[in-house]
Amino acid sequence: MKDYEQLPEEKLVALCREDDEKAWSVLFTRYYALAQAIAVKLSVGSAQEEDLVSEGMFGFLSAVYSYRPDAAAQFRTYAAVCISNRMRNALKADDTKRRIPSNQFVSLEESDIDIIDPDGDPAFAAASKSEAARLEKLIDVTLTAREKQVFLLRLRGYSYQQIAQAMDLSIKAVDGTLQRARKKLQTRLA
Q1: Average pLDDT over residues 45-56
Q2: Angle between helices 122-142 and 145-155 (to 10 degrees)
Q3: Taking a C-beta distance cutoff of 8 angstroms, is the pair 140, 130 a contact?
Q4: What ranges do the domains of the chain cover?
Q5: Smallest Cα–Cα separation from 4: which of 75, 13, 33?
C-alpha cells in the first residue's frame, strides 16, 4: 500500500494522469490551500475570494495535465504559477468588464505569498481536505459524461480542434460544451 502523503509531487502528478483517486485527493488538498492563500492576497472581498479560488483550481487542474517532468521547474513551482496566472487573468477580465483601475490590484510579484503547508495548521488542513473532496465530487455530479470528457481533454492541453476530431464534434460544439461545463461548475461553486 502506498503512503500517498509521502510521495514526491511529481510522482503524484503521474498517478493523477492515470486517474488514481487517492493521488488526486492528496494533490487537490495541497493546492486548494495554496489557491486560498493566493486568493486572500489578491481579492477585495470574500465573494471575490471564492471566485478566485475556483479559477485557481482550474489553473491547478491544467497544471497537472500540462506539466512536463523533464522541464527545469518542479511541479510545485509550475502549479503555483498556473494557479496565480489563472487568477490574475480572471481579475483582468473582471477589471475590463467593470472598468476598475488596475492599480487597485496587488501584483503577485510584489506580494509575499508563501507556498503553504496545509499540515502546519490541523484545523486548516482538515477544512482544506473537506473542501477538496467536495470539489472532486462536484465535478463528477455536475457535469454530463460528454461535458466531463471534453473538459478533461481540454485540461490535458488538447486544442478545440483535437477534441473535435477525437469526439467527432464540431469546434463550435466543443466550445459550447466547455462553456456549459465551466458555467455549471462556477454556478455550483458560488
Answers
A1: 77
A2: 120
A3: no
A4: 8-142, 144-190
A5: 13
